[in-house]
Amino acid sequence: MTTIVIILILIVAAVILFQIGKLTELASKIRGEEEVELKKNDRTALYCLLFLIGFMIYCIWTGIIYKDIVLWYGPHTSASEHGGLLDSLFNVTAFWTGIVFVLTHVLLFWFAFKYRKKKGVHQAFITHNNTLEYVWTGIPAVVLVYLVASGLVVWNEVMPDVDPNEDYLEIEATGYQFAWDIRYPGPDGKLGTKNYKLIDLGSNSLGMDFTDEKTHDDIVIGTPEFLLPVGQKVRVRITSKDVLHNFDLPHFRVKMDAIPGTPTYFIFTPTITTEDYRKRLKGHPDWEVPADEEEPDGLKRWEAFEYELACAELCGKGHYSMKRILRVVTQKEYDQWLAKQQSFYLTNVRNTVNDPNDASLLKIEIANRADEFLAAVDQAISTPDDVSDDLINLEHVFYNTGSAELKEVSEYELDNVASVLNKYKQVNVELGGHTDNTGAADANQALSQSRAESVRNYLVNKGISPERLIAVGFGQNNPVDTNDTDEGRQNNRRTEMRILTNNNL
Ligand SMILES: [Cu+2]
């Protein structure tokens, strides 16, 4: 409806202008050409004067009203360490270009008004004026040199790379049509290498090189939101898999192209948590309205505020859907969140057909097992009256078939046992050997006894006092699973460690 009314008004206005034109033409025929021309000039000059005043007021007025939203003042001043520098550079540029705008705007329309054609007045005819040339070339040159120089100074302060020895967190953002994959380094603090030739959309969409140990604990964030700790220097590696994208965190004044084939980076330190930024917005009328118009009693806009990661390059029809949420939290919250994230390799690739390391035990698995093992021992020791948790299966101790000779891979688990026994000097243990029911019971009994003894010998060689260790063979008498399946029999063939908390060997 409004559109129709506007169109009608425009048509009427056009008709009126056309009619005025025709009237002027008629009048000119009656009153003579020159006089009409002068009248027309006077009128145009007056319009110029009105535009001069009206447009100036409009610019100042909208500038004041929208300065927080469009110009990022008020609660929207930068939320990062370097952002203040960019904001002040923006202010300097706005100051100088503002002066140029006011001057040129006033001069342009004021002169059009003042020097309109008048009866009997002839214009001065200036062919050349050196002073004028110097002034209007010199002044802009000086101002531009100043602006470019201050821009370079800020650029050099914002863009230097990190020193490898300083404390920083490195993450990686890979843009593609139409999303971001955000990769975190995991507990080792280092991102593993990538190779585009390894990209496989089903199993390895980033092309991570899993023969590089550093990739084993890398985390790829699949949720819409990702977290960063406040006050921590962050280096973002930025890449793209297809077309140009742009990694844009507007609240932190971070903006960098993601270019296929050319890695870029940005370094910034978030200084305000999401929670504190919300408090900044509280009380501003724009932010005190419901976040969802359909739920007037729901969260206010300031309560629902989130930092946004956007793609600032028009990269295709799904461009808008590259939005992600960045939550800036305290170091403690960040650590808790990170601890819950799973390694991409261990959850998606390890022991599948795509695993290039299937024949070997990985450092990260050894480390994880050491943690698990220590937790189980701690649990047993902390509850001396509860015997149910005193029995720990040595899951990673293996022997050659039919013999008591330890496989090499068992050393990791047994080194864990040794380090626990060194840590808790008061603890004595019983080492129990078990077999499945294949073969004669007597032979199984003997085999389980000698296997338990070879574990004991290994530990004694590692410096554990023999008095703290007892080796017992249980043969096939204590199965934990059925002996009718391969898997069941495998579970029954095992070595266990019982913690004797009361020292009763
Ligand atoms: Cu994009």
List keywords for this structure.
505 residues, Immunoglobulin-like, elongated, 3 domains, five-stranded mixed sheet, 11 helices, alpha+beta
Explain what this protein looks like in three dimensions.
With 505 residues, this protein is α+β, with helices and mostly antiparallel strands. The longest helix is centred in the N-terminal third of the chain and has 38 residues, at 33-70. The chain has three domains: 33-120 and 128-158, no CATH class; 169-348, Immunoglobulin-like; 363-500, OmpA-like domain (60s Ribosomal Protein L30, Chain: A, 2-Layer Sandwich), CATH 3.30.1330. Helix 3 (83-114) runs antiparallel to helix 4. It has a five-stranded mixed β-sheet with strand order 3-2-1-5-8, with no helix packed on it. A five-stranded mixed β-sheet has the order 4-10-9-6-7, covered by helices on one side. The model has no long low-confidence stretch (mean pLDDT 87). The chain is 42% helix and 15% strand. It contains eleven helices and 14 strands. The protein has helices at residues 2-31, 33-70, 83-114, 130-158, 274-281, 331-340, 344-348, 363-382, 410-423, 441-461, 486-492; strands at residues 169-176, 179-184, 219-221, 225-229, 234-240, 245-249, 254-258, 264-268, 307-311, 324-329, 391-393, 428-434, 469-473, 494-500. Strand 12 (428-434), helix 10 (441-461) and strand 13 form a beta-alpha-beta unit. Bound molecules: copper (II) ion.
How do the strands and helices of this protein lay out in sequence?
Blueprint: H1 2-31, H2 33-70, H3 83-114, H4 130-158, E1 169-176, E2 179-184, E3 219-221, E4 225-229, E5 234-240, E6 245-249, E7 254-258, E8 264-268, H5 274-281, E9 307-311, E10 324-329, H6 331-340, H7 344-348, H8 363-382, E11 391-393, H9 410-423, E12 428-434, H10 441-461, E13 469-473, H11 486-492, E14 494-500
Parallel strand pairs: 1-5, 4-10, 12-13
Antiparallel strand pairs: 1-2, 2-3, 5-8, 6-7, 6-9, 9-10, 11-14, 12-14
Helix pairs in contact: 1-2, 2-3, 3-4, 8-9
Bound molecules: copper (II) ion.
Residues 175, 245, 311, 313, 315, 319, 322 line the site of copper (II) ion.
